[in-house]
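Re: that chain you flagged

S.,

Sorry for the slow reply, it's been a week of failed gels. I finally had a moment to sit down with the sequence you sent. For the record, here it is as I used it:
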Amino acid sequence: MAYEIPPAPHEYVPPPKARNRTPAELAWTGKLTIAAGALVFIGGFAYFTRGGAMAPAQAFVMMLPLFLIFCAVGGAIWKQGADGIGPMVAYLSAAVGACGAVAAWLWGK
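Prediction finished late last night. Pasting the structure tokens below so you have them in one place:
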């Protein structure tokens, strides 16, 4: 049975550490995430209203939770860094649940 021999202690190279991001970099990343969400929302809305047989209200309610997810994650990164994403989960689940209830009501008509 062959196995690899571990490197000698003097040959060990520790893994690189992630660098700390500056507030300006975090703000740029958050704004870029929100802008990407806006593009996805606009593109999805246009696709579902023009390409499918979906009413504009249905397409809006269907794409709104995804846009809210992008905005919440982008805003959390913008204001608090990666540590801010955790508290957003509760708010997102409530918002997505509300949008799901409205969508079920719209489709049930």
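What I noticed first: DSSP finds three helices and no strands in the chain.

Talk soon,
D.
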